[in-house]
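Re: [ENG-882] Designed sequences occasionally contain unexpected residues at chain ends

Forwarding the minimal case from QA. Structure tokens:
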């Protein structure tokens, strides 16, 4: 990834890192490279979708992270390249099945740096709900039907999770496939030579070499699992704090500061709610018997003030909820 720093600055940074590592007596060994196979992605996805211990600003973050994981493990692309991906670079097509079955959804990635468009067509069907996706068919006489994304989806995102682990596993899958030649693998991974993969990507020997040599029967699936990230999952490993540990965390300065913010935001929200309730009660008592036609310009101004007070109350509620999430995340 191009950091924008000069080579001299990068060398100085590396020297400082080496100095700190020596002072702190850190191990000067390369971090082990692990593969994140599709089974690991399945486990990660299951946890991400079912956990109630992780807080997201909005559910759309779930979709973004899951989409990033799918792209990373299937394409084995550089994580930095995926971080520059926009939804407008994604083209959806319904492809007519030659065997006559229901049309299949294909997702094509066309990054701006490889192909640009004069304009984006909006004449085709617009995919704006999950229900419409499964009700669409390919127009008669065509073999494929392009689907348009909503304009508000044409934004980028940077959520990331174990990116190079996914690239390693994807590259190994390509290398093991009889359908992918060395030349095609180089094209997919953007390598100039197959030796790049051999030197940097063959991180684990995930076949049963002992069984192969001894001719006792290969247990490669078992060995492959042993080399995966999922093998380290321990369902009995504690992931929640005990009652005493939780009490001790509440005394940390960072948590106390977050708790003060929560208390402050809650009070502001309750004050806004009380003012809004009083204002609504007063308005209904004095003008509730009037219909819209009888309300004067003066009354309209009062209604506008009520709406502003409602907006401030909702804003105070959102700030309180955000403070609660930040406190929960700090404790986690």
């Amino acid at each position: 990834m191009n950091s924008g720093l000069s080579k001299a600055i990068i060398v100085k940074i590396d020297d400082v890192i080496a100095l700190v590592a020596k002072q702190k007596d850190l191990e000067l060994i390369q971090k082990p490279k692990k593969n994140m196979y599709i089974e690991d992605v399945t486990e990660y996805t299951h946890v991400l979708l079912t956990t109630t211990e992780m807080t997201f600003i909005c559910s759309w973050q779930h979709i973004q992270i899951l989409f990033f994981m799918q792209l990373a493990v299937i394409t084995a692309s550089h994580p930095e390249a995926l971080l520059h991906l926009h939804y407008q670079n994604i083209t959806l097509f319904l492809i007519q099945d030659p065997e006559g079955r229901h049309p299949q959804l294909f997702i094509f990635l066309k990054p701006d740096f490889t192909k640009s468009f004069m304009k984006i067509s909006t004449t085709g069907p617009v995919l704006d709900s999950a229900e419409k996706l499964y009700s669409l068919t390919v127009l008669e006489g065509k073999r494929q039907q392009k689907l348009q994304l909503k304009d508000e989806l044409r934004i980028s995102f940077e959520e990331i999770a174990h990116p190079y682990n996914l690239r390693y596993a994807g590259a190994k899958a390509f290398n093991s496939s009889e359908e992918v030649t060395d030349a095609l693998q180089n094209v997919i991974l953007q390598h100039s030579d197959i030796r790049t993969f051999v030197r940097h990507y063959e991180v684990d020997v995930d076949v049963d070499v002992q069984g192969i040599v001894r001719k006792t029967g290969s247990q490669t699936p078992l060995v492959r699992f042993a080399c995966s990230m999922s093998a380290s999952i321990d369902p009995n490993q504690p992931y929640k704090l005990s009652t005493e540990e939780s009490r001790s965390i509440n005394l940390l300065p960072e948590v106390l500061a977050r708790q003060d913010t929560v208390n402050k935001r809650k009070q502001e929200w309750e004050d806004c709610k009380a003012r809004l309730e009083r204002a609504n009660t007063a308005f209904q008592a004095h003008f509730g018997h009037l219909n819209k036609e009888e309300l004067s310009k003066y009354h309209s101004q009062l209604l506008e003030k009520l709406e502003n007070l409602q907006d401030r109350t909702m804003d105070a509620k959102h700030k309180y909820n955000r403070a609660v999430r930040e406190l929960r995340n700090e404790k986690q």
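QA comment: On inspection the terminal residues look reasonable. The radius of gyration is 28 Å. Proposing we downgrade this to a documentation issue.
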